[in-house]
Design brief:
By secondary structure, this protein is α+β, with helices and mostly antiparallel strands. It folds into 2 domains: about 70 residues, Glutaredoxin, CATH 3.40.30.10; about 55 residues, no CATH class. It is built from 5 helices and 7 strands; from the N terminus they run E-H-E-H-E-E-H-H-E-H-E-E.
Length: about 160
């Protein structure tokens, strides 16, 4: 197993550490957790990296850059995740990644829901099902997060 490209230095009591871990987990981004209260070397690293300040979480990336106590928006920006929709409105939005959501989207399309049918699916496992359904109807798939994240955009071409 390869070592994750992201390391979070933090403490179990820290709410910002929990938030950062939850954000990465929700976007299926692997990371390594290091508790600085249990690892003196890790604590020394955090102090050195933050000019003597014990800032947690301190997140280190593969390119050796670091973000001390980043917001979710700062993390998304660093990771190249798009957190906003491309357009201001859509003809149809379907939330969910289950078979029933996919069938609803297909039914709306068949009923002429609009010139362009756009559906958001919040479960990454829906990719294979969607590709099978929509590729037969010559639609183009666009994925906003290739790392297995939580937002998929499918738009009829």
């Amino acid at each position: 197993m390869t070592e994750p490209a992201i390391t979070i230095f933090g403490a179990h009591w820290c709410p910002d550490c929990r938030r950062s871990r939850q954000f990465l987990g929700e976007h299926q981004i692997p990371y390594r957790w290091v508790d600085i209260e249990e690892d003196a070397t890790a604590e020394a690293f955090v102090l050195t990296a933050n000019r003597g300040k014990r800032i947690v979480p301190t997140i280190v990336f593969a390119d050796r850059s670091l973000l001390p106590a980043p917001s979710n928006a700062a993390l998304a920006d660093k990771l190249g995740l798009r957190m906003k929709a491309e357009r201001s409105h859509y003809d149809l939005v379907v939330a969910g990644g289950g078979v029933s959501s996919l069938l609803e989207a297909e039914g709306a399309k068949a009923a002429g829901a609009g010139a362009q049918l756009t559906a958001y699916f919040c479960v990454s496992r829906a990719r294979m099902i969607l590709r099978g359904l929509f590729n037969e109807q010559k639609t183009e798939a666009k994925t906003s997060d290739e790392s297995g994240g939580s937002l998929l955009l499918w738009q009829e071409s």
